[in-house]
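ok, trying the design again with the full structure, not the truncated one.
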């Protein structure tokens, strides 16, 4: 949901043998060539299965805390109750879901329809950006730095800066739909960030000044059916690197998060959007709000779609705790992103906030 750390397209000397143009691959197929590209990892399946997959027990599906945002339009007590629910869920879960969020069913359905059409394009067209107006490198799949199956994400995604789509004049249905979706979801994200700031006694103008349309992202995800779903991540465990993520997911399920030291499965709610706290919000709030590890597990039979909106600042924005004494040292978002990329390249996974703790004396 990374968060930018998810499926980072970086090269590594430790990466498995790559086959850029797999033999016998159907040029018109939309499917990424997972088996051909990661054949070395699949050949080692017996050796890696036991030691590289998490030992957390998975509980039954549970409902995330549900917040009805219509309460914000009612009297003072209802409005205050709603804000408290948002803050409490962000502290205790790092995740919650919202209904009556102001994004119409029509916008959500249009977005999903255009997204499905996009992913049905031939793999080669997605890779080379044919007929797409996105920046180079927007299309990502797998995990080029994976050295074992536990680091491989069985998914593909378009990670698109809003500056690629806002004000594009609706070049096509996809761009105009994304622009409409991003505009409405951006307003929701800012509203929620403002509430979280207010509930810890801070002014909210910080998010309006630093999280601009040119610095935020949409990420359209597709998780193809996976023949070895019981042993494969759709997206490997991670935290998101932003302030706040707004997720629109389908009914298939697969999202899981850590709660009280255990992995739990999130029950999909077709009427709700899922909100989660990112690393920057945890650092800014001095650990009051929690950026929680989450993952998506693969499904053997069904493909899954989701769209994530990331509320991000510019790279030069300095993050410092708004409450003292500070748990984390000051750092810029650009510095944070660079450290995440270096860690993924070196270790195959993101280290994140522990890198930026103030040294204990």
């Amino acid at each position: 949901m990374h968060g930018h750390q998810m499926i980072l397209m970086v090269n590594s000397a430790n990466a498995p043998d790559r086959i850029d143009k797999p033999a016998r691959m159907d040029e018109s197929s939309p499917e990424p060539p997972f088996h051909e590209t990661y054949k070395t990892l699949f050949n080692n399946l017996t050796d890696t299965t036991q030691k590289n997959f998490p030992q957390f027990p998975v509980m039954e599906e549970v409902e995330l805390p549900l917040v009805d945002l219509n309460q914000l339009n009612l009297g003072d007590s209802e409005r205050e109750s709603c804000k408290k629910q948002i803050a409490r869920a962000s502290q205790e879960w790092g995740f919650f879901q919202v209904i009556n969020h102001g994004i119409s069913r029509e916008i959500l359905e249009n977005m999903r329809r255009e997204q499905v059409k996009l992913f049905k394009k031939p793999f080669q067209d997605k890779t080379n950006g044919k007929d797409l107006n996105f920046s180079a490198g927007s299309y990502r799949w797998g995990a080029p730095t994976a050295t074992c199956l536990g680091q491989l994400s069985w998914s593909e995604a378009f990670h698109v800066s809003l500056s690629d789509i806002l004000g594009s004049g609706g070049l096509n249905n996809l761009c105009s739909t994304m622009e409409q979706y991003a505009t409405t979801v951006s307003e929701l994200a800012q509203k929620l960030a403002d509430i979280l700031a207010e509930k810890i006694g801070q002014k909210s103008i910080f998010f309006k000044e630093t999280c601009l349309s040119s610095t935020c992202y949409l990420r359209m995800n597709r998780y193809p059916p996976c023949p070895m779903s019981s042993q494969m991540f759709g997206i490997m465990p991670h935290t998101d690197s932003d302030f706040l993520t707004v997720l629109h997911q389908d009914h298939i399920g697969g999202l899981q998060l850590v709660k009280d030291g255990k992995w739990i499965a999130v029950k999909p709610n077709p009427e709700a959007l899922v909100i989660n706290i990112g690393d920057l919000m945890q650092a800014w709030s001095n650990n009051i709000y929690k950026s929680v590890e989450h993952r998506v597990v693969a499904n053997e039979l069904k493909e899954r779609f989701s769209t994530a909106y990331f509320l991000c600042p510019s790279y030069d924005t300095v993050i410092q705790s708004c409450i003292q004494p500070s748990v984390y040292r000051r750092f810029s978002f650009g510095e944070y992103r660079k450290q995440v990329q270096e860690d993924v390249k070196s270790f195959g996974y993101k280290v994140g906030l522990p890198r930026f703790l103030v040294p204990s004396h």
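Keeping the full-length input from now on. The chain has one domain: 54-356.
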